[in-house]
Known about the structure:
Blueprint: H1 3-6, E1 23-27, E2 30-34, H2 41-47, H3 55-62, E3 66-71, H4 77-80, H5 83-89, E4 94-98, H6 99-108, H7 111-119, E5 121-125, E6 128-131, E7 134-138, E8 147-153, E9 156-160, H8 169-173, H9 183-196, E10 199-201, H10 206-211, E11 213-216, E12 219-221
Parallel strand pairs: 2-3, 3-4, 4-5, 9-10
Antiparallel strand pairs: 1-2, 6-7, 7-8, 8-9, 11-12
Helix pairs in contact: 5-7, 6-7
Amino acid sequence: MAEHHVFADGDPAATRSIVWSYYVAVRGSDVTLIDVGFRDPEVARTWGVELLDVTAEVRDLLAGRVVRHIFVTHEHFDHTDNLDEVLAAYPGACVTLSEAAHRHLTAEGAAATRAALAAARVREVSGSASFDEWRVETVAGHTAGSSVVVVTHGARRYVLTGDECYLRESVTSGRAVGVHVSMDRNVHFLRRLAAEGDTVLPCHDPMVFEEYEAVSTNVVRVF
């Protein structure tokens, strides 16, 4: 990806290596997804992405468990376009996202995404809200509907940042993401996250796949 997309002050002539991923949380027989990815090969070619079909790989790891909840961090295609496929496989799943993200997807999302959301059970978040062990916080720096998802495991708190940072480096350096609707809100979030010292889990940072143990070809285990 062009560096000036990753960081607001990035070099337009430089590039940064990123990955395109989402998160799966398993608790007993229930599964929670944080974002769902995308599968359109034409879109992948446009973005220069090596598109990996991980559906069967994830399904095998779930071993018959059922997706109950889906948190959508924001409205961009690479985080939402598989909603129709996931909701068709798990029609009882509840989708949680910010009001602004829901409004955008309902009006401008892919046709299949709009139809899937219209038939699904949806929870909108305004500001922040907690659902069992999960907390959703709207940031609205990257997009108007951008939020982060927070969960605690053991003594450690994890922040799944969606695209409020592409790389953890944004947190340690305080460099705003290059794609944003509000640099001020994004930088405020990054500084707060750096001060709090939580574990940062972006969707596009290759370091996540290098740091954690692989449990299958394209999946690593965070905890």
